[in-house]
Design a protein that fits this description.
This protein is α/β, with parallel strands linked by helices. It has two domains: 42-127; 145-314, Rossmann fold, CATH 3.40.50. It has helices at 3-62, 66-84, 90-98, 110-118, 120-127, 145-152, 169-177, 190-206, 244-254, 268-274, 284-293, and strands spanning 159-163, 182-187, 211-216, 229-235, 255-265, 296-304, 307-314. It has a seven-stranded mixed sheet with strand order 3-2-1-4-5-7-6, sandwiched between helices. α7 packs parallel to α8 (190-206). The two termini are 40 Å apart.
């Protein structure tokens, strides 16, 4: 074959392949944004329907202006919490409040706490900086969530697990964006498990194609050994693992042979620079050293505004 023709055909292939990749990524971005919007709409519609009825009944007795009061109430807690306590764990503080301990909610009125309790899932998306803090809670264009999902590479029909899922808002979003997932969410904290189970009922009303299991986690095991998972994601939780060697051994037994472990972490430098993040956060080289010693090979990494994304496979 003529060398010039061969070069031309190779160039056409590369350009077409690059265009296909670009189109696929653009389509996935649109899918992610739609998933966030669907989830946000469901949360706003469900929670504020009850809240409006509560406020209306209260104001009928006082004679105050209903529309103006409703507007203030809708904005107050989310907006002020985000501004004053951006580096606080809202679910940990909610747990403390429930136990009668000092928390960021200590000065909240009964009405404000009703807003908090009915909107914990909406709070989560605001504190994750996926949504803006003001009603009607538009999608934050600077969110790292899109980059995270693209990096993780979830596909319809995957079997995945979120270790240390917290309140579950991130994993639940995955279940809205993708179809036919077998999704496992683990957490040690009781209040987080309660919140996830509460939220799961709302998620099922949005999408019923996925199988979701919420499990009590342990310090040494995933509890998913033999599941042959496609992906295990530990989002801002690996640095909290107290028995890292044992947990990594368990992760190996939970993944399929070509499965992937994805770690999403925030480095200590981020904590120092912006006063946000966890005091137990680890540097990237520390994480990589631990994973290498325990039989994992780094296959991809990426830095985003708020931290680092690391993808591993089991070493041969």
């Amino acid at each position: 074959m003529n060398k010039l023709l061969l070069v031309f055909l190779q160039l056409v292939f590369v350009l077409n392949f690059g265009t296909a990749q670009t189109n696929d990524e653009a389509a996935l971005r649109k899918r992610i944004i739609k998933g966030i919007a669907d989830y946000r709409s469901e949360l706003v519609n469900n929670t504020y329907a009850n809240l409006e009825a509560y406020i209306k009944a209260t104001l009928e007795k006082s004679g105050n202006d209903y529309d103006e009061t409703l507007k203030i109430v809708k904005n107050l807690s989310l907006k002020e919490l985000r501004k004053k306590y951006s580096n606080k764990n809202i679910y940990e503080n909610f747990r403390k409040y429930k136990l009668g301990k000092k928390s960021i909610f200590s000065t909240f009125s009964p009405l404000e706490m009703k807003i908090v309790e009915e909107n914990l899932d909406l709070f989560g998306l605001v504190f994750q900086q996926i949504l803006k803090p003001d009603f009607p809670y538009g999608i934050n264009p600077k969110t790292d969530f899109l980059a995270e999902v693209l990096f993780i590479g979830i596909n319809d029909g995957d079997k995945i697990a979120d270790l240390g899922a917290g309140s579950g808002e991130i994993a639940f979003l995955w279940s809205i964006i993708f179809k036919d997932l077998e999704l496992y969410m683990t957490e040690i904290g009781e209040i987080q498990l309660e919140v996830m189970n509460f939220k799961s009922k709302k998620i099922k009303s949005i999408d019923t194609s996925n199988t979701i299991q919420i499990l009590k986690g342990t310090k040494k095991r995933t509890g998913l050994e033999g599941k042959n998972l496609d992906k295990i994601i530990a989002r801002l939780s690996f640095h909290h693992f107290k028995k890292k060697k044992a947990m990594l051994a368990s992760i190996k037994k939970s993944l399929k042979a070509d499965g992937e472990l994805i770690l999403i972490e925030s480095e200590p430098s981020f904590l120092h620079e912006r006063k946000m993040g966890c005091k137990k956060a680890m540097f990237q080289h520390e994480i990589e050293s631990i994973l290498k010693k325990n039989g994992f090979t780094l296959i991809d990494s990426e830095r985003v505004d708020q931290g680092i994304l690391l993808k591993y496979k089991i070493a041969n």
